[in-house]
Design a protein that fits this description.
Elements (H helix, E strand, L loop, with lengths): L6 H12 L2 H10 L14 H7 L3 H8 L16 H7 L3 H8 L16 H8 L5 H8 L16 H7 L3 H10 L12 H8 L2 H9 L15 H7 L3 H8 L4
């Protein structure tokens, strides 16, 4: 991707970050600026418009012929990653509708926009999370470089509401680097709500063994979570 720090490019990026749509259009029409031009950090005008929550600027860019909605900065972040991290629902929704958008694109750490939505763990990000989950083609089982899915992180850090939303909307089945499933994670934390959600969605990995040959039932029993053993496992045996 073409990089530049020229005055016209700096001006173009500034208009995008400030939402000055008319000036953006004029620069695109008269100066011959590449709509995907980036700075030294790989940041494009679309990155800036998304992170600065400038919907008008995003529309101008996304309707422009040749726009690359999946362009990555030096960290591997796309405009969608940044809109998600900013909790920018309107921007996320618009990007998810963009032709050619890769909803499951991974950054330099293997994180998808869904991973970023989970990490934010703020109440105002719940609708952003739901918007991603409602997008056709979303894959909740993508592992990051730590071999962890977005839902796995949600369970580990006890973001229960977020984990339940993901489980209720999708087939959560991926294993991490130690072959631990969502059942293993929930059993280790004694999280009955997560366990019940897995039961309700007919997740059949309750007998799966991790890298140590241990099942979720083993952890629930060993850690004294007897209600989990009684309610969630006896009916599945």
């Amino acid at each position: 991707m073409k990089r530049s720090s020229g005055k016209k490019v700096v001006a173009f990026h500034q208009t995008a970050s400030q939402g000055k749509t008319q000036e953006m259009k004029e620069l695109l029409q008269t100066s011959g600026i590449d709509v995907n031009i980036c700075n030294g950090d790989g940041v494009t005008a679309l990155h800036l418009a998304a992170s600065c929550r400038k919907f008008g600027a995003m529309r101008v860019l996304l309707y422009h012929q040749g726009i690359r909605p999946n362009a990555c900065d030096k960290r591997g972040k796309t405009a969608l990653h940044l809109a998600v991290s900013a909790g920018y629902l309107a921007g996320v929704t618009r990007l998810c509708r963009q032709p050619g958008i890769d909803i499951n694109i991974q950054d330099g750490d293997g994180r998808t926009p869904l991973h970023d939505a989970v990490e934010s763990r703020r109440r105002d990000h719940i609708e952003v999370l739901k918007a991603l989950l409602e997008t056709p083609g979303i894959n909740v089982n993508v592992n990051d470089k730590y071999q962890r899915t977005a839902c796995s992180w949600a369970v580990e850090f006890r973001y229960q509401e977020i984990a339940l939303i993901i489980i209720s909307s999708s087939n959560v089945s991926s294993e991490d680097i130690q072959n631990s499933t969502m059942w293993h994670r929930a059993s280790q934390w004694g999280n009955m709500a997560i366990m019940q959600a897995l039961v309700n969605h007919n997740d059949t990995s309750f007998n799966a063994q991790d890298a140590h040959g241990r099942t979720p039932l083993y952890y629930a029993s060993a850690l004294g979570f007897h209600e989990i053993v009684k309610i969630n496992f006896t009916d599945q045996a």
